[in-house]
Design goal:
This protein is of the alpha+beta class and about 170 residues long. The chain has helices at about 60-65, 70-85, 110-125, and strands spanning about 5-10, 15-20, 25-30, 35-40, 45-50, 95-100, 130-135, 140-145, 150-155, 165.
Length: about 170
């Protein structure tokens, strides 16, 4: 990053949005949590959400206080905030990372897969599709969204360097 670029850190159960092309949104330690990045390439408006739990029905008071904690309330808040910046639904590129099986080797809670299922269900209800994702497994991930380019980059724990998150339907040659 150059000295003119700004990094906004998105904490756990938090989100950030911007349409400033000098901004990069970043979140760290995505274990069973999901990082959800959305980006409109025309307006360069985008947002990043670090969501912990699938369903706000377990604690309505907590959901009202911290909507970004839950998939259902956090994703809705993220989309509303990016729409306020001029983004349009049909242009949004959605990228997702996280949803790993961390600290639950027995699979008893299955939070990572449950978060991913809740997100897929919610997006399908609104006729939206995930463009690119890296979910599951056993590793923590960090995620960055560049508002200048729309690129989403991941750093996977135990791997060297960052990787560009590519379209789920693309194939390597």
């Amino acid at each position: 990053m150059s000295s003119l670029e700004q990094k906004i850190i998105v904490g756990i159960a938090d989100m950030a949005v911007s349409k400033n092309p000098t901004v990069t949104l970043a979140t760290y330690s995505l274990g069973s949590c999901l990082g959800v990045a959305i980006y409109d390439p025309i307006t360069k408006a985008g947002g990043l959400l670090h969501v912990m739990l699938p369903d706000s029905n377990i604690d309505a008071a907590k959901a009202a206080e911290r909507p970004s904690m839950f998939v259902d309330t956090g994703v809705a808040a993220l989309f509303r905030a990016v729409y306020q910046l001029g983004a349009e639904k049909q242009r949004l590129i959605i990228s997702v990372a996280g949803g790993a099986q961390i600290l639950d080797g027995s699979g008893l809670f299955n939070l990572g897969p449950r978060n991913h299922e809740a997100l897929n269900r919610l997006l399908a209800e609104h006729d939206l599709c995930i463009y690119a994702e890296q979910v599951g497994g056993l590793a923590n991930r960090s995620m960055r969204l560049s508002l200048a380019t729309g690129e989403v980059r991941l750093k996977v724990s135990g791997q060297f360097g960052e990787t560009l998150l590519l379209c789920k339907n693309s194939t390597s040659t």
